[in-house]
Amino acid sequence: MIEASVEHPVKALRHQISERGWSMDDALHRGHGPSVPHVMERFHCEQCAKAVLRDQEKDESLEREMRDDDQRQQRAWMQETQQRQKRKRTEKEHEQRRLFEFLSDGSSDSDGMAEAAQLIKGLKVPQLKHVYATNQLLVSGSKGALEERILGCKKHGRLGRSCPLCGNSKLELKYAPDNATEPHAVQCKHMRGMGRPCPFKKEFTPDTKVTVLTGQLVDDAEGDLRIVGLLP
Ligand SMILES: [Zn+2]
Ligand SMILES: [Zn+2]
Question: Which residues, in sequence order, are CB contacts of 127 under 8 Å at separation 6+?
Fold first, then answer.
């Protein structure tokens, strides 16, 4: 308690205190969230007022620190996600390059695949897409991925029609991770919705391959494959 008189005046500060409370009902999930802030006015002597202000500043700086911490964590999380996606992309590109190099292995170019791989590189992306549409192949991924699928189609053949289940032209040959020599299935990559791929997938063996992949690589209407010399 501070004594004040006209002869001995004391400075006082007026504060606005905002309190937001949770009732017991709220805490037990029976209520309707926190109450509206209850604003009160308080008078303090100078000393107490300064202590209160110090406390408030401490609270605020703590809150700021926590907020900064949250933002740091958020940034770190986003960076990690981006790095993971980049790693995944790189892995996929490596896999495609490996497949492409295998398919176009020049050491014994008995089937003309090494030459075909070079010719395919002469196709621009719009031309690749026309060829894809004509051959009912999945259009997605890098230019390297598109080239690889045409090469696979030339080497192994294709289903020869659009997907028998959904009618889409998004077919892809599937290779086992440890075997780039022979595909083991042809699969539809159409998505019917989030996480709902078309279930069409036809497995085959090297022996039954010709009975499943009855189609061959064909040229598009513009004759793009003939122009680059991939087809006669
Ligand atoms: Zn006081
Ligand atoms: Zn399908």
Answer: 220, 222, 224
Ligand having the closest approach to the CA of 168:
2
Q: How far is the CA of 110 from the centre of ligand 2 (A)?
A: 34
> Ligand 1 center to residue 1 CA distance, Å?
6
> Does ipTM exceed 0.85?
no
Q: Is the dihedral of CA 124, 125, 131, 134 positive or negative?
A: negative
Q: What is the pLDDT of residue 176?
A: 86
The residue range of the domain holding 212 is 98-227
Distance 169 CA to ligand 1 centre (A): 81
pLDDT at 53: 82
- Domain for residue 12, yes or no? no
Mean pLDDT for each consecutive 10-residue tract of the chain (232 residues)?
Answer: 70 69 59 61 77 85 88 92 90 79 66 84 90 90 86 92 94 86 93 93 95 95 93 88
- Token pair 């395919």 is at which residue? 120
Ligand 2 is an ion; its neighbours by CB within 5 Å are 163, 165-166, 188, 190, 198, 200
For residue 142, tell me if it sits in a domain: yes
Quick check: is 115 in a domain? Answer: yes
In a domain, 92, yes or no: no
Ligand 2 centroid to 186 CA: how many Å? 11
| Residues 201 and 188: beta-carbon distance below 8 Å | yes
